[in-house]
User: What shape does this take?
Amino acid sequence: NAGVTQTPKFRILKIGQSMTLQCTQDMNHNYMYWYRQDPGMGLKLIYYSVGAGITDKGEVPNGYNVSRSTTEDFPLRLELAAPSQTSVYFCASSDRVQNTGELFFGEGSRLTVL
Amino acid sequence: AQSVTQLDSHVSVSEGTPVLLRCNYSSSYSPSLFWYVQHPNKGLQLLLKYTSAATLVKGINGFEAEFKKSETSFHLTKPSAHMSDAAEYFCVVSDLAGRRALTFGSGTRLQVQP
Assistant: This one.
């Protein structure tokens, strides 16, 4: 049972480059999220999705874009990488039907922008 | 609006002694509260959750937490620390009335001394 899978696990970007962090889940969860974790901080919500075709901004959306064409996939795109986007990114999903609020997390993607 | 305050950024205990990690919350709704644990270079794992059932919640690995509405607290405890408990712990409140996203505390790093 894979759960939430994120790729890549590590990436180094130059300022101004673009990239996409991939996230897929096999639990048929409606809700999916992208968080970023900076050193010594809790997680901050970047974007979330309540179902295929529906996305919305979280607390820190600037510099990012998302799409949700299928229930399984929720990629996060960085268009013009900046040093402030150096962080660890976590994708997560949750089950709307169970409605407990519990999130299932991927193992994270560590991004460095130089 | 909702928020979480973890009162200690670092806690150090000796192996075999009790653990107390403190958390206060603020929420406009009847909250769901969680403790997540993050081991180094890993994703987050659910430790325990409170969802308006019993106020004393038992989780994995001997941890438990008590929901105290009058004190708006949700402190995490364990009677006897183990070396494997060394990790980062996050207190989290869930927005069940809306997007079901989580609001994270800033984390408490637990150090366990031999």
Notes: The radius of gyration of chain B is 13 Å. Chain B touches chain A at residues 4, 9, 32, 34, 41-46, 49, 51, 90, 94-96, 99-102, 104-107 (CB under 8 Å). The mean pLDDT of chain B is 89. The CA atoms of residues 48 and 59 of chain B lie 4 Å apart.
